[in-house]
Structure formats: structure tokens, C-alpha cells
Specification:
The chain is α/β, with parallel strands linked by helices. It folds into two domains: 137 residues, Oxidized Rhodanese, domain 1, CATH 3.40.250.10; 126 residues, Oxidized Rhodanese, domain 1. The protein is 29% helix and 15% strand. The protein has ten helices and ten strands. Helix 7 links the parallel strand 7 and strand 8. Helix 4 packs across helix 9. The longest helix has 13 residues. The model has no long low-confidence stretch (mean pLDDT 96).
Length: 279
Amino acid sequence: MIDPLISAESLFARLDDPDVVVLEVSFYDPDKAAYFKGHVPGARYAYWKDLLWRELDREFPTSDVMADRLGSLGVGDDTTLVLVGDPVQFATYAYWVLTMTGFEARSTVLDGGRETWSVQGYPMTTDLPVVEPRSVTPGPVDAACRIGRDEVLAGLESPGRLLIDLRSGEEYSGERVAPLSAPFDHGAERRGHIPGARNLAIERLLRVDGTFKAPDDLRAEFAAIGVADGQEVVTSCRLSHRASLGWFALTRLLGQDRVRVYDGSWTEWGSIVGFPIER
């Protein structure tokens, strides 16, 4: 298994390696994606829903379907897959889904994502790569890193479980449903947060340049809201992308092993009839 995080410097040194496939996972569909205005040389593009969801429902693909999708992007059994997020949490979200579908062992996240690569002055191109489809075999899957709404609800009074809400302060308090960067305020029928959840905006886990803080600094940020070694943790946000970044930091960078992502997050919880909220 390769290191889950790769620096821009290390990726730059491997751009000519035929066993490295760079994949930009974008929040934006092709009409709006910055990828087509410039990207890491050789990088492929994927709209996050097309890559990571089933076609007709909000569920994740099977391992075989994911293998077909990755293979069509040129990923093979000897490939190191570098995930470039636009923004960075879309890479950690992809990494989380690949963990559940059997491809974590070949995957790594570009620290800071697309924005950091660009700001640090690494090369960008508008050339689209010629991709040769390959065959790739899924490895072991790990679905234990996911939790559903009913189990979250049933554990609200559990003293041993800590809920972390990685949204902005405005979203957590109920001032907004969507972050300030969203074109309009939408995403759920109610505003607020899951009862008992503690707020830790993802910006507190990142340096000014968008890369992850050092492990000791990450540990201090989590400790400040009550996370201890061995703590059972559930992360959430609005769509679960920021929640996946919190999961990635806790599990892959700090070595915690009792962390799950509530992927329904606020878009689900804030719209369910009868589910409690706090403000």
C-alpha cells in the first residue's frame, strides 16, 4: 500500500512515470470545470458524481463497476492513482469511496489539490491525454468507514461517540445551509446541526496554502473539540466531501481506526421528517 498523501514536489518528479495515473476529481461538470483551462500534465478528468455514484441513485458503485470506470481512465493493476481534488476534499472523498470499493491500496491524494499545485507554480497544460483503457482488479473492500442515518440517530445519546461537523460556522449555527462560496443558499429544508455535534471547519485542518497541517497540529485541532486516542468518531458536513477530509486526516494521517463518515450528512438529515436538529 502506498502513502495516502503525496506532495506536489513528489508528484512533479513522477510525471513521466508510465505507472502513475493522475486523476482530477472535480466538483464541477465539464461545462464549468477548471480542468479544461489547465491541469496537471497528463491528468485525466472526472466529474465526481459520474465517477463515484451509481447512475440512478445516491449510492456507491460496486467494485466491478468501479473497476470498469477506473480502467476506462487508464488505471491498471500496476498503477499508482494520484487523486487531485478540485477542491481538495473531492480527492479525499474519492479516496474514501475507493476504500469501500477495493482500490485504496493503489490510491494517493495530492496534498492541497489542484489549487495548491497551481499556486506553487508547477506546470499546467490544456492538452488532453490520450488514454489507453486497461484492466484493473479490485482489492479488499472496507465498508466499515461509513455510517447511515439510523445508526447516527440511535447513537445520539452515546457518551462514547463524538460527532464532528466539518462545515463552516455559518452552516453549523444555522445561519446558512450552504457555505458562503455557494452561488445560492440551498441543500436542505432546515438549518442547524445534528444534536451534540461539535464544529470543526475544514480550514482548521489545512495550512494557508491548502495543504494539510503537520500531524501534531492536526492532533491538537481534533483534541480541542474532544477527540482522544481510540475515540469513536462520526464525521459529517453538507454533502460528506468535507466529512471525508476529516476522516482522511484522522485515519490516514493520524492513525485513528474508529472513524466513520455519515455520507447523507446535512442534505439528508436536515430534510428528514421527525429527525432532531439543534441551533
